[in-house]
Amino acid sequence: MNQETITTARQIGFFGGSFNPIHNGHIALARSLLEAAGLDEVWFVVSPQNPFKQNSDLLDDAARMAMVTAALEGEPRLKPCGVELTMPRPSYTWHTLCRLRSEHPGLQFTLLIGGDNWERFDRWYHSADILATCRIVVYPRRAQGCGGPIDAGSLPAGVTMADTPLIDISSTEVRRRVAEGLPIDTLVPPAVAAMISKQGWYAANADACRGNRS
Ligand code: ATP
Question: What residue stretches are annotated with the Cytidyltransferase-like domain (predicted)?
Fold first, then answer.
């Protein structure tokens, strides 16, 4: 495929995550990837709860999707995407990409992944098929373990490194601050802070608040 063919389709960045909750780091990263990766839009693909993994901190799918939707209002090129919430679980990126391609044949998807995930990419389900059919853009993400920076020269064809800033925010930190009663206004969009506060999500005594509270 030559460069001209690639650029005729609308370019969509596939940005998957649990978004528990979405924070300003996700949004700043997506904004800079629009330019760094030459994308028309970035879709925030909310991953569902995994029935085989118990994570008591993880809010239910509807709650996380609602926060992503609220956070991205007024961001015309950043879109919430709930497709995985309707698919069989556990969800695999390969299946999601296949579904998105069949639902949106006019769009071209680029997988956006952090350097930490890239180090484990060869263990992903159908990783070779993803690599063969999808452009991948790896953005810098502080390594959780001992891994260092990725050597751009070692990346296979179709995979590029994006030069995006490191933003020192994580969902873990947001949840910890809420549980400790500390403010999160500089870490998440105002609409998200308001929802978390109103629903009592992530509060230390919030066992009864997982998911919806009317
Ligand atoms: P948690 O702290 O719960 O592990 P998280 O903040 O890493 O969550 P995820 O929902 O896992 O958020 O994020 C989706 C993707 O966004 C991840 O693959 C991660 O690489 C990336 N990401 C999250 N926060 C940042 C950040 N501050 N800068 C760059 N990338 C980020």
Answer: 14-177
- Output the CA 4–ligand 1 centroid distance in Å: 33
State the ipTM, two decimals: 0.93
Query: CA 26, 30, 33: angle at the middle one, nearest 5?
Result: 140
Cβ-contact 52, 95 below 8 angstroms: no
Closest CA to 84 of 45, 56, 54: 45
pTM for this entry: 0.90
Nearest C-alpha to atom 30 of ligand 1 is from which residue?
141
Residue 115 to residue 120: CA distance in whole angstroms: 9
- Ligand 1 center from residue 164 Cα (angstroms): 14
Domains and CATH numbers, the chain: 9-168 (3.40.50.620)
Choose among 23, 139, 145: nearest CA to 72.
23
pLDDT tens digits along 177-199: 999 999 999 999 999 999 999 99
